[in-house]
Each structure stands twice: as C-alpha cells, then as structure tokens.
Design a protein that fits this description.
The complex is a heterodimer of chains A (656) and B (177). By secondary structure, chain A is of the alpha+beta class. Chain A is built from 25 helices and 21 strands. Chain A is 40% helix and 13% strand. In chain A, the strands form six sheets. In chain A, strands 1, 2, 3, 4, 5, 6 and 7 form a seven-stranded mixed beta sheet that branches. Classes of the chains: A alpha+beta (656), B alpha+beta (177). Strand 14 of chain A pairs antiparallel with strand 2 of chain B.
C-alpha cells in the first residue's frame, strides 16, 4: 500500500488520444518528495532543452503535493509545470482551491499531458473513468463560466474544474489557469494549455488516501492546530497588518491598504504616491470593499479565508484572490476601488495573470503618452483611464491590433515595437513582469531572492524573515523571543543586530554571508511547501507560521512511513532546487540573467551586488556562473545531471 | 403513543460562518476509518458541504436516516436572496443522490455524533465555528427501535440478491467459522 501519495500518474497523449494509468516508483518520493520535486524530475527526464513552449514535445504537468488530501491543514496547492513561453525556463505556477485534493481522491498524483490535440477538448476524470471529451461548445467561454458549464454538463456538482478563458485559447503569454477561488497564473500556463487545445480538466474522486502512522500524524496536527489558534490570538507586533497574521495576506478581509498603495509604484511601475491614503480614500475603499465582498472563503481544508466571493452591482459574481484588488487600479491610476471589482471580473473570465497583465496595459498607455504607440494603434480606444484599460484588456486577450503585440508581455512587445520602446521595459527580470516595487536603495535579500530564484518573481519568495529592521531593541527582542521556526539560533542575533541606519543597516547588513543563509532558508521552505502542496501562506511566505523545518519532517514521516529527519528533508529540498537550477541552466540561464532592472533601486551598488551573487553561489555550491558544480550535484545523488551538463559544455570537465 | 424523555445530541450549523473548506468532511472520514485516521476520503464523510459557490451557498449537512424512496419534493426556496434546492438541506441518504453513501458499496452512512468523543470530530476541527455541538433533553414520542447499520446493509443485499441468498450466505459463513 502507498501512503500519502496515490501512487499513479495519468499520462495523456493528446495527439493520439491514448490514456494510461501508470504506477510510480516509490523511490521517486524518497528522492524528490512529490509535487514540484517529482515534476521537475519528470521534465528533466522527458523534455530536452531544445524544446520550446509551443512545441508539441513540451509537457504540461498538473501535480498534487505529497500532503494534499490528508488532514494537514492548508495542503491544497496544485503545481503546474511547463516550459514557459515568456521566460523559456521551467515554470511552476501554483493554485490553491480544491483541484489537487480531488485529483488525489480520484487516485492520481499527477496528470501529464504531452503533444497537442487537433481539436478543443476537456479531460474528464471520475475515479477510474477517464475520457478526453469534445470542448468545441466551450470555445470562447469564460474561465469561471466554463467551470460551471462542465459541472452542469456532467451533473457532478462536486467535480473540481480547472479551465482557461479566452486568453489561454489565444496563447496570451500571461494567460492563467483558473479554478474555484484560485488560479495558476505566472509565466503563461494558460497559454501552454491553450496551445495544446485543452479547455479544461474536470475531476471527481471518492477513493482513499492512506496515512502510514495516523496517531503520530494527528499528534503533529494537534500541535499545528494549537499554534494556529495561538497565532490568531497573538498577531505579531510591530509589523504591518497584512504580515501580522497567518495565511496569505488577508486583503479581502483588511481594507487598510496604506502600505501597498503608498510603497508600491503606480502605473508602469513609475510613481510612488506617498500621500495617497487619505481619510476620504480610506472611507471610500472600505465602503466599496465591504459592499463587494459577499463572503470570505477558503481553499480546501484551510481554516483561513484569503479569498472572497465578489458580488459588485451588475457585475457577474466571481471569486477573487488577494492582490488583484490593487493591481489594476494602481496600474491604471484609478482611485476608485469599484473599478477593481469590475475589471477583475472580466480578467478572471478571460483568465489572465493579475500581476503581469496590468503592467502590460500600463506599459501600453505609457508608450502611447510618449508617442511611441500612436492614435492608429489606439483607434477606437476611450480616452478615460477606466475605459482605456478595459479596451486594452479586450485587445490583448483577443490578440487584436496592438493587443497581439502586447499579448507576448512587456519584454517581447517592447522589442517588437522598437522605436525606443525598450526603455519602457524597466520592470522585467528574465523577461517576466515583476511587482511594481521600486525602492530607494538596494535591499540585499530582496536582490538575491528576486534575481536568483526559479520562481522568477519575488511574489512568493519572501517570507519568514522580517522585511526590514525593527527600530528599537525592545521590538527586536520581542520578535526573536518566541521564534521556534528558525533553522538555528544564530538567526536571532542577525535580527537583534540589524539596524535601520548606520553600519549594520541595508544594504551592507545583513552581510552577504548572512543573506546567503537567509535566502537559502527561504528557498528551502518554499521548496518543501511546493513538494508537499502546502500553501506558502501557512509556511514559507509567512512570519512565524504553523509549518516549519522542525515539524515538517515529523509530519512527512508520519504520513508516508519513511523516516525522515531534518537533515534528510533539507537534502531532498536541496536536490530539487539544484535539479531545477540545472534544468534552467540547460535552458540558458546564467549569472548575467540574474539582475534586477537598472532603475530598480535609485542607488545601486554594483560591487556589492556582484559580491552578493558570488557569495550566494558559493554557499549554494554553484560556480561563478551560477551552475551547480559536479561536487555539489554528486553529493545530492545527481551525478547524471553533472554528466549531462558536461556533455553539453555547460559545466567544464572537472570544474568545481 | 407514549412520551419519553430523550437526550438529543445534535450539530447546529451556522452556514454564514462556513468558509467552504471541507475540513469537516476530511476529518469525519478520517475518524471513521479503521484504524482511526488511517485513511481520508470525503466521499465517505457523514457530513457534506452542499456548495453553489457563486450562489453564496456553503451549507454543511450531516447525515440522517436512510430513506428507501426518493421524495416527491423538488422545490426551490429563496432564503436571504440565495436559492436553495429542497435537496440542499435534506439529511437523508436516498436513491436519488449519491450523498451519504459509501462510495464503493453504496451503503448508506449516518452521523453517529462520533460516539465516545466529547464532541463530534467535525465540530472539533471546524476552526471557523460554523459547527457547534448541542446536547439537550426533550420529550419525544416513543420510537420503534432503529435498524442497526448491519440490518440496513443486509436489507440492501436482500433486495439485490434475495433474502434466501443472504440467509444461505450467512449460514455458509457461520459453518466455515
């Protein structure tokens, strides 16, 4: 009997219509856990680096995590992996909701799609019954609408459906995959799904998922539950409201957006409006949000409620995630939050990433105002800010006119438009739109996380480490007093010594060595979360979360039956991280790619940035170009990866 | 019929507090696994969340008595602007739907209030307080003894295979020891 995992993959060949249920080797779990870990391994084995996003050989893998469908609170993430049309690297957007648990209860750990379907289809899974079904009647339908239509068509109200909207159908590079109250958004998974002509996947499952040592598991869960209750009763002091609790930032709950609106940049990541949050805005936004949020809702088996059912005036209902509430309004310079609820609905039905897409629209407006795009490009576009954004969104999603160019994202659009447009591409890293965060001076931790992680966005890379120094020693002592989540006690001293100004302040403190340790810790936690399917809001993304490096090994051991200690778990996370790194090195990623745009910080420190990169690479066991050394790879049982990198000339023979 | 005093044990549902997470379903199925918590499967849960997400309906319903026939009612009700079907609040396992039935055998499931526990497991693990446990004494009419779960199961087999076949099978099993 298999524990925690179902033990089977579903392999779908879209070209031939062949469907296979394939038993997996239990050793895969021992080496890579599951979720992102085993998915990276599958891509490494199956998809050579020559394969591009829209080649039939690109694989699209929907994966559950190791702890999905167990009683572990908040383990509900589905990981979607593919070669991204935007970055060209192995992308892994994730979604919460209910899909992963249902897939596991149907008896599968992953659904692996290869090749392309000649016609629009959706995949129907009901336990052992698996069918590729015609979806021609769903073409052009919205991503939320499609989920409802399929549930009705199957007469399965409990089926979970992941679907794309028009953006995915038209291979827009920022197309998302929508499901329930969540979506897999970053780096164009919807476009790859659309390229393969998969409109949706519907799944219903009523099978058992087993635990190896249930008593031990429930004992650990009792600890987790007690801690959740404790944290609810004791929010962290001296940090901004959205960081004080657990779960993803509770932006559907909190209406106070002073920090985001005044510290993130508006428009095309250009302007900080430091006096934006007035009493009038507070009142108007609070009123708008309270009227629109019908109910706060959660994902599968999660006691928090980071999402909301939105019912705004005549706008059809939909479910909103956290940050989209701000991104469109801020990008469009619209000060009325009602605009957000309206455009988010349309964007959700289209199925587009609400981080990247507003940036693209703002970029287009900026080019128009600079005379690089002309009246001809904007023919028929309303002149008001709101109307302009709706018009641009429609064009992008339909790939009409200038929208066809913009649909490939800021990086590619700027190069296609030319005529100086490249200078307006100032907020992408590795060809990917980042959060509009432009700061005064270099933040060394942020620099490393932003530049080097395979997630290619800080969005979910920060986490258990405070975002800035605490002003007073009392506050620092209070913060470190109760902090069992840290890997070792030394981290407490780093916080205690960290000053707002002076020698021990940003950018020189934390030092490059400390930064490497901290970033490595964050990466490790994210890698574990992404392998077990945990929402990072309850772990890696969150200050003092319920899941951490000390209770994870016990929980995973009790669930799976394998005896795993902290060192063992760290080794697996490291193995997955290095395999992913090597995969992206094969796709061309090098040191030169690992830098934020020139204007990202007003004051740059080129020498320090180089020192940070070199120190971090060394700490990770990578060479000066950011490629894992043979020694490191062999230490992790990845000798075959070193051979491959050497064979391709990416690692020089004998280099360490 | 004579009146008797009966201890009523029930779960009170506050649907407005439900965040739709289905933890109650997971924990119920896990608790009733043999041995407890060794497996998880909301399909086996004796509490189910009836959902119409866009309609703002998340309604936890725990399993009541098995009914042999489906009812004639199919009405819709509007409560607080939300549209509920008659089935939404029905606690029965009936031939018309697959709720509250063992997914593999099709046998009906009934909430047993997690007998022996301080409070039902679904209540204990519902951290948003959508469920609460209540015990009270009420005067009720004396009921006929309930059929046990085994009786219900055997009755299903008798319907499917004939009573004599079931008797023969049980006799044969008894002889085998």
């Amino acid at each position: 009997m298999r524990y925690a995992e179902a033990g089977y993959y579903l392999e779908i060949d879209l070209a031939t219509g062949n469907i296979e249920r394939v038993a997996t080797d239990p050793k895969l779990m021992q080496l890579h856990l599951g979720g992102l870990g085993t998915s990276i391994k599958e891509h490494w084995d199956r998809v050579p680096p020559e394969v591009k996003a829209f080649d039939p050989e690109n694989h699209l893998i929907f994966s559950t995590g190791l702890l999905n469908a167990t009683p572990a609170f908040s383990a509900n993430r589905s990981v979607v992996t593919f070669v991204s049309p935007q970055s060209g690297t192995l992308a892994y957007p994730m979604m919460g909701g209910f899909f992963a648990a249902e897939l596991k209860y149907a008896g599968y750990d992953k659904v692996i799609f290869k090749n392309k379907s000649p016609n629009w289809v959706y995949l129907y899974i009901n336990n052992d019954k698996v069918e590729i079904r015609d979806a021609s009647h769903l073409q052009g339908r919205g991503a939320v609408e499609t989920q409802e239509l399929i549930r009705k068509e199957l007469n399965l109200p409990k089926a979970q459906v992941a679907a794309i909207g028009l953006a995915g159908e038209n291979r827009v590079f920022t197309a998302s995959i929508e499901q329930s109250r969540s979506s897999a958004s970053r780096l164009g998974g919807g476009a790859v799904m659309g390229d393969k002509k998969i409109k949706a996947i519907a799944v219903r499952g009523t099978k058992d998922i087993y635990l190896a040592r249930p008593d031990e598991f429930m004992e650990q869960m009792k600890g987790v539950t007690d801690y959740i209750k404790y944290r609810w009763a004791n929010p962290i002091k001296d940090v901004m409201t959205i960081l004080s609790g657990i779960g993803s930032p509770q932006e559907m709950l909190h209406t106070d957006e002073k920090w985001h609106t005044e510290n993130f940049a508006w428009g095309n990541a250009r302007t900080r409006r430091r006096d934006f949050w007035t009493e009038e805005i507070d009142e108007s936004w609070s009123k708008s949000q309270h009227a629109a949020v019908k109910r706060l809702i959660s994902c599968f088996n999660c006691p928090t409620h980071c999402g909301a059912l939105i019912s705004h005036k005549d706008t059809p209902r939909y479910m909103a995630k956290c940050f989209g509430k701000l991104t469109y309004a801020m990008a469009a310079y619209v000060d009325d939050l009602d605009f957000s609820w309206k455009i988010l609905q349309r964007a959700t039905e289209y199925g587009v990433d609400s981080f990247s897409t507003p940036q693209i629209l703002a970029f287009a407006v900026e080019l128009y105002e600079a005379g690089i795009l002309t009246d001809k490009d904007f023919a028929g576009c309303p002149s008001d800010k709101e109307g302009r954004f709706f018009w641009l969104l429609d064009r992008v999603v339909r790939r009409e006119g200038i929208g066809d160019v913009l649909a490939d994202g800021v990086y590619f659009a700027a190069r296609k438009i030319g005529n100086g447009a490249e200078a307006f591409d100032h907020n992408t890293i590795k060809k990917h739109e980042q959060l509009p965060v432009k700061l005064g001076t270099l933040d060394p931790l942020y620099f490393l996380m932003y530049s080097t992680n395979e997630k290619i966005s800080i969005t979910q890379m920060e986490g258990q480490w405070p975002q800035s120094a605490f002003p007073t020693m009392e506050q620092r002592e209070e913060f470190v007093r109760d902090w069992p989540q840290i890997p070792h006690e030394g981290f407490k001293q780093y916080v205690l010594d960290w000053e707002l100004r002076g020698e021990k302040s940003i950018p020189y403190y934390p030092t490059p060595d400390m930064c490497s340790e901290i970033v490595d810790w964050m990466e490790m936690m994210h890698n574990i979360d992404d392998a077990v399917g945990m929402c990072c809001g309850m772990s890696s993304f969150c200050l003092k979360p319920p899941y951490h490096i000390h209770n994870y090994p016990k929980l995973i051991s009790a669930a799976t039956g394998m005896d795993l200690d902290e060192d063992g778990l760290k080794e697996i996370a490291n193995r997955n991280r290095n395999l992913h790194r090597a995969y992206n090195n094969r796709k061309g990623i090098r040191r030169a790619d690992e830098k934020p745009p020139q204007d990202h910080w007003k004051k740059r420190f080129p020498e320090l940035e180089e020192e940070l990169l070199s120190t971090y690479y060394k700490y990770k066991g990578w060479n000066e170009d950011g490629i894992p050394t043979r020694e490191k790879l062999e230490e992790l049982g990845l000798g075959y990866v070193a051979n491959d990198l050497e064979m391709r000339g990416i690692l020089k023979n004998g280099e360490n | 019929m004579a009146k008797i005093k009966k201890k009523i044990r029930t779960i009170t549902v506050n649907a407005d507090k439900c965040n739709g997470c289905r933890t109650c379903e997971v924990m119920c199925s896990a608790f009733h696994a043999v041995p407890p918590y060794s497996s998880n499967n909301p399909g086996r849960s004796r509490i189910q969340i009836i959902t119409d997400r866009l309609g703002d309906i998340w309604l936890p319903v725990f399993a009541g008595e098995y009914t042999e026939a489906e009812c004639m009612g199919r009405n819709k009700y509007i409560i607080d602007g939300k549209e509920y079907r008659e089935c939404d609040s029905c606690r029965a396992s009936c031939p018309a739907r697959d709720l509250f039935k063992e997914p593999d055998s099709g046998l009906p499931l009934k909430c047993d209030m997690c007998d022996g526990e301080d409070e039902p497991i679904c209540v204990k693990w519902c951290l948003v307080d959508a469920l609460s446990y209540e015990e009270r004494e009420e005067e009720v009419e004396e009921e006929k003894p309930n059929m046990t779960q085994m009786e219900i199961g055997l009755e299903q087999f008798a319907k499917k295979h004939g009573l004599q076949t079931v008797i023969d099978t049980v006799t044969r099993m008894a002889k085998k020891g």
